[in-house]
Amino acid sequence: MKSELDLRPGETEFDHVTVRSLDRADIGDLVKIDAEILGRSRTKYFEVKVDLCLKDTGLNISLVAETDGMVAGFLLGRVYYGEFGLPEPTAIIDTIAVRPSMKGRKVGGALIRQLSMNMHSLGIEKIQTNVEWRSFDLLGFLGSQGFEPTPTLCLEKKL
After folding, report:
1. Could you report how far apart the first and last alpha carbons of the chain are, in Å?
2. Rounded to two decimals, what is the model's pTM?
3. Which pLDDT does position 61 carry in this prediction?
4. Average pLDDT along the chain
5. I need a labelling partner for 79 at 20 to 30 A (CA). Which of 41, 62, 89, 115 fits?
């Protein structure tokens, strides 16, 4: 992979990554990437999640990144129209994952960049996500992509 200093005019650091819309046929690759990260397979979980992302809303914002002829990462999300006290439409990232062997190759950045361009073109001005507070790598990545803490607070009640 080239560094920023090695790029030719008009070339970006993301040119080696192709980002496209999620398709139901991608479930197998999503399950494999997730299993590489978590050490267990969650096929049913991804079948349900992908169906929700593709059918629950008229706007599919979920993306898949490919590089070197393989699925390298994915982003699952939806647009919410006023839920959670948000007055305007907001894109919510539910899941973002990159194949561990592709870490550091700008795959996650390419996914966030494409999502940002897509949402901007639709007039959606915010992207939000929740992160477990001890996920320091993910927090660092999201911070590098311009994400900041919001004034809202996530609450839970243990049963």
Report:
1. 49
2. 0.86
3. 92
4. 88
5. 41
Q: Of the candidates 100, 97, 104, 107, which has an alpha carbon nearest to the alpha carbon of residue 17?
A: 107
Q: How far apart are CA 109 and CA 40, in angstroms?
A: 25
Give mean pLDDT, residues 116-145: 93
Does residue 36 contact residue 71 with C-beta atoms inside 8 Å? no
Q: Which distant-in-sequence residues (6+ apart) come within 8 Å of 2 by Cβ?
A: 11, 13
Q: Could you give the CA distance from residue 127 to residue 92 in angstroms, rounded to a whole number?
A: 6
Q: Alpha-carbon Rg of the chain, whole angstroms?
A: 16
Residue-wise pLDDT for 38-81, tens only, equals 999 999 999 999 988 888 556 789 999 999 889 999 999 988 88
| Structural domains in the chain, sorted by start | 15-144 (3.40.630.30)
DSSP states along 82-106: SGGG-SSEEEEEEEEEE-GGGTTSS
Structure tokens at 21: 């819309």
pLDDT confidence of 155, banded at 50, 70, 90? confident
Integer Cα distance of 62 and 40 in angstroms:
23
| 63-67 and 70-81 strand pairing | antiparallel
